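Entry 14: structure prediction run for Water stress and hypersensitive response domain-containing protein. Input pasted below.
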Amino acid sequence: MNTKAIYAAGGGIAIAAVVIFFVLGANPLPAPSTSPGTNSTAGAPTMVPPVIGVKDVSVTKADDTHANVQVTFTVENPNTTTMILETIHYNVNVDGVRMTIGDVGQSAQGFLDSQGNLFPIVAGSTLTAKNTQIAERNSALADAWDKMVSGNASFLVDGTYSYRLTAANLQTTAEDREFSLTFP
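Run finished. Output tokens:
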């Protein structure tokens, strides 16, 4: 039998085990409870969506027509199990004008798809994710671009984010949610 095939199969099994660990979480099964934050009929924990925020928007002028726009997001997991952040699709707007668009992460297309662009967020912790895109100056957005590059802009960052959360009772939530945040 081909040794490379055996190693590849073993590696695939190891990756699957790690993914299952993060999806199901490392927490033991909770005892049934009727306290706040639980579903009193099944004793299952309530799954709460992540809390997304914009920590920073940094603009660096590259030349007279290009600027690098870096957005730093925070994503808090308020749940008792590990959550998987798949993607953040976003727009950066100044004065109602879209300056750039970007993506953090990648949606998984199946069990065997690459998991490298998924972000596990351990229970009760916060992930910081950054993405940089180029904003190009043209006549349609010149005033907003100039304001952004000079450091005098207020930003509206909006879009959608996707996540998966599996509770200890194996109930899974996978959702896309919209967001709209201002910075500063």
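Notes: The mean pLDDT is 80. Will compare against the previous run tomorrow.
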